[in-house]
Amino acid sequence: MSTTHIENLTELQSRVGSEVALSDWFEVSQERIDLFAETTEDRNWLHTDPARAARESPFKETIAHGFLTLSLLSELMKLAMSVGGVRMGINYGLNRVRFVRPVPAGARIRGRFVLAALEQIDGGVQALWNVSVEREGSVKPCCVAEWLVRYYV
Fold first, then answer.
1. What's the confidence (pLDDT) of residue 59?
2. HSE on the CB side for 117, CA within 13 Å?
3. C-alpha span between 30 and 57 (Å, rounded)
4. pTM of the model
5. Which of helix, strand or coil describes residue 112?
């Protein structure tokens, strides 16, 4: 899948209300889950112990932390699109996040980006992205979020 290139903020404005991009698939490996567990001090067996998860978890395997899935939004967006004519883009926060389905170790995910709103701010614009993180082979998304990104010119 190719990256969607948005030439400038005028073109981005014309995309309000539509799906702008869909990222390539991205694997969430057990190694990535383990590294995230170390970084965040969240070493719960549900994420880090495949043998115990196989025995005791309702999922029968380890799963990614919800916050790991959420933290991958930036990478998924980078895989999906680029916006030209801006000096920088920053993560401004989230309005709403839900972890709808688990992401098992080794699963592949992708991001679907719908531009819900775009408003002027000092020095640029603020975009409200409705993001769905989909898991390969699953009908329902694993994470849905309203994500605010600021683009400065």
1. 96
2. 9
3. 16
4. 0.94
5. strand
153 burial type by CB count under 10 A (0-12 exposed, 13-18 middle, 19+ buried) = exposed
Of 105, 101, 94, nearest to 143 by C-alpha is: 101
Short-list 86, 119, 126, 69, CA closest to 5: 86
Q: Length of the chain, please?
A: 153
> What distances in angstroms separate CA 24 from CA 7, 52, 62, 144, one per listed residue?
20, 32, 23, 17
The band of 2, judged by pLDDT with boundaries at 50, 70 and 90, is confident
Pairing assessment for the beta strands 19-22 and 107-121 based on DSSP bridges: antiparallel
Tens of pLDDT, residues 23-48: 999 999 999 999 999 999 999 999 99
Give the Cβ contact number of residue 10 at 10 Å. 9
Q: At residue 1, does pLDDT exceed 80?
A: no
DSSP state of 1: -
The two beta strands, 88-99 and 143-152, are antiparallel
- Give residues with Cβ within 8 angstroms of 90, minimum separation 6: 149, 150, 152
The pLDDT tens digits for 66-88 are 999 999 999 999 999 999 999 99
